[in-house]
Amino acid sequence: MEAMNVFASRLFPRENRFVSGHRACQGCGEALAVRMVHQLLGRNTMVASATGCMEIISSSYPDTAWSVPWLHVAFENAAAVASGIEVGLNILMEKGKLPKRRITVVGMGGDGGTSDIGLQALSGALERGHRMIYVCYDNEAYMNTGIQRSSATPFGASTTTSPAGKFSPGQQTWKKNLPMIAVAHRIPYVATACPSYPFDLADKVRRAAEAKGPAYIHMFASCPTGWRMNPELAVAIGRLAVDSQVFPLYEVVDGRLHLTHPVREPRPVKDYFAPQGRFRHLDEAAVARIERRVREEYQRLLERDGQILF
Amino acid sequence: MEERIGMESSIAIAEVVGRCDVDVVAAYPITPQTHIVEHLSEMVANGELKAAFVPVESEHSAMSVCCGTAAVGARTYTATSSQGLALMHEILFIASSLRLPIVMAVANRSLSGPISIWNDHSDVMSDRDVGWVQIFAENGQEAVDLTIWAFRLAEDRRVSLPVMVHFDGFIVSHMIEPILMPDHETVRGYLPPFEPLLRLDVDRPVSIGPVGIPDIYTESKFLQHKLVVDAYQPIVETLEGFGKYFGRHYHPVETYRAEDAEVLLCTMGSLSETAMTVVDRRREKGHKVGLMRIRLWRPFPFEDIYRAVGAVQTIGVIDRAVSFGGPPGPVASELKAAFYRKPQQPRLVEFIAGLGGRDVALADFERMFDVLLSTRKTGQVPPPAFVGLRE
Ligand SMILES: Cc1ncc(C[n+]2csc(CCOP(=O)(O)OP(=O)(O)O)c2C)c(N)n1
Ligand code: SF4
Ligand SMILES: [Mg+2]
Questions:
Q1: Which pLDDT score, from 0 to 100, does residue B391 have?
Q2: B325 with B343, same domain?
């Protein structure tokens, strides 16, 4: 473990760009992921943020948790705003109105701001080919407005608008596969990542920054508040998600799929569900049904590992 | 140097946007705005204009991209109409709150439903309160001139607000007119390079667009209101400056044969030109009628209105939009509100006319003046009327 710490501190620059003092809940996995991403990306970065937990907790005027330039416009348009920043910087540099240098442009949003209301803006920005990174921080519901379901909420999860009840098992649809939607845009780099696997995450953020066009990172972001879970499990739950095959870690580089942390002997899905209140109502049959689907999907990924997807 | 040419207004507007050294155009097509952005993208493709053209996937993203480009200090232009403006609605408020000096042409068009591509002011009126400076051009020359001016005003550091230049769809946008086109050097002589008030800069990082808690929200809105109100002085100054430089003079409110008028008709946009013809006819008959044209819509030019109306006791207002179930004319209610601040109010006759491209003919104006003259005589104000309504 000690050797790991030495390695990690070399991998992660010391300086934070998303600094402490923000108002995230205790054990917020999303805030942790944001901090890691921006530690890695460094100072020459500009951020366009969607409305959502991360925007609210980091920018209550007159305070800010951001030490890199940061712009929030609205909920569904972070990808469009980021693309504007990229276009603006490029043309000003081209016209000699700004000194030429490499600035990494980052768009960020939650799963709601990305896979639902912001999907169009994201698709437009990816299709136009802007050199920018878009990070979707997926905590699997609209947390900022009080844990409502999104299209990224997993099957069976109870949220405030997909409540488990006598006639409902909670969320009744399967999670939208957003990273593969990003892949379908044939952009140079797509990855899934999880802060519980920091080295994997660091590699992917670096590769995204080097990509010559749009890069999309789908980030697992645990939310103790919304998942009704003990905050001290924020990191452990990410490991369980990956190790149970619920959240596969992979990247798609110029169309080629690569499982960066293949899990061949998965832990039972129920181990991942157990600490979370949002799944507590599920009976064994429901968990088994979900597990079958998780295994099938993972198997498909394993079969396509190393293949070109587009 | 200026050259007199015959040109479609939209093409002339696009040409002059190029001569304003714009850095970014982000736009989405909608009739009747299309010719402007088509021509701009052509200029970029041909290398005549060194700018980025961003063919976004919606107007919502057009305005969002504009926010991003303006925030890094790029001179930013877009254009839209009708449904496109409505789709931008949410972001318009944010662009002004963030004080991003974006310039946008709005080729005014009716709103659905039923879907209608033709001209009226329902798009403008539903975005009255978005915190932008809004000005009306009545013809192609004015649209060209006010586009140049809009960049100057928007980027004035006392103002730093986005500006909408309104003109009537088709009637102005698609008209081929003789236009005095200033050349590139002439425009440059008037329009200094853009020096933004605040920009995203990695060497001086700032957070733009934070959360406004109740403790500061009221103050921020007070300041925003004051900013738009106070934009009036820079507007008048820069319009004067424009007049001195180019020799074409514009004012927040303009009148036509209003000096000794007993009744005034109030118009906005291209209808004014037809109205003038009828004013001339009436004057020949000895009727003391005149015209008041509101050019500046936001900030609302209260003092200019009071001055233009003077002692006139009967005013007619043509509205080209409807506030359903409301007063119903948005411009008329604005005028009523303005005069409510005064000890005495003129009689105000409301006309709704020219909706969804319905022609407002000379005969319609004749009838409106008849109503105004009889109102003046009897003192009886008729209820609001839809002009030319087929029963
Ligand atoms: C157009 C619009 N619709 C709805 C909202 C309300 N809203 C703000 S944040 C949010 C949920 C955000 O969820 P997500 O994107 O998943 O981010 P999280 O808070 O979970 O990190 C919603 C619904 C809004 N701000 N704007
Ligand atoms: S609600 Fe969840 S995502 Fe939002 S700040 Fe709290 S823990 Fe983080
Ligand atoms: Mg969420």
A1: 85
A2: yes
- Crossing angle (nearest 10°) for helices A29-41 and A234-243: 80
Task: Report the chain B residue with the minimal C-alpha distance to residue A85.
Answer: B68
What value does the mean pLDDT take over residues B219-241? 98
**Cα–Cα distances in Å, from B353 out to B53, B274, B317, B320, B356?**
37, 13, 10, 5, 9
Interchain pair B60, A88: CB under 8 A = no
CB nearest to A74's CB, from B52, B91, B208: B91
Same-domain pairing of B280 and B369: yes
Task: Name the domain count of chain B.
Answer: 2
CA of B207 to the centre of ligand 1 (A): 20
Name which residue sits closest to atom 9 of ligand 1, judged by CA.
A52
State the average pLDDT over residues B43-61: 98
CB neighbour list of residue A9: distance below 8 Å, 6 or more residues apart: none
Do B143 and B62 share a structural domain?
yes
In tens, the pLDDT along A36-73 reads 999 999 999 999 999 999 999 999 999 999 999 999 99
Can you tell me the distance from the alpha carbon of A161 to that of A146, in angstroms, rounded to the nearest whole number? 10
pLDDT value, residue A276? 98
Residues B193 and B263 placed together within one structural domain of the fold: no
User: Are residue B143 and residue B16 in the same domain, yes or no?
Assistant: yes
Q: Give the helix/strand (H/E) hosting B69.
A: helix B59-71
Q: Are residues B140 and B166 in the same domain?
A: yes
Q: Average the pLDDT over B214-221 and give the result.
A: 97
A59 and B202 within 8 Å at the Cβ level: the answer is no
CB contact under 8 Å between B23 and A95, yes or no, is: yes
Q: How confident is the model at residue A1 (pLDDT cuts 50, 70, 90)?
A: very low
* Residue B123 pLDDT class (50, 70, 90 cuts): very high
State residue B298 phi and psi, 5-degree precision.
-140, 130
Does B324 lie in the same domain as B213? no
Q: Give the separation between CA B2 and CA B19, rounded to whole angstroms.
A: 12
Q: For position B268, which CATH number holds?
A: 3.40.50.920
Which residues in chain A touch residue B20, judged by CB atoms under 8 angstroms apart? none
Residues B186 and B322 in one domain: no
Confidence tier at A5 by pLDDT (50, 70, 90): low
In this prediction, residue A254 has a pLDDT band, given cuts at 50, 70 and 90, of very high
Closest CA to B105 of B67, B143, B73: B143
Residue A57 Cβ < 6 Å to ligand 2? yes
Chain B neighbors of A67, CB-CB under 8 A: 205
CB contact under 8 A, A70 and B50: no
**Position B317 pLDDT exceeds 50:** yes
Segments forming the whole domain that contains residue B51: 2-246
First to last CA, chain B: 53
Residue B391 within a domain: no
Last-in-domain residue among B246, B276, B306: B246
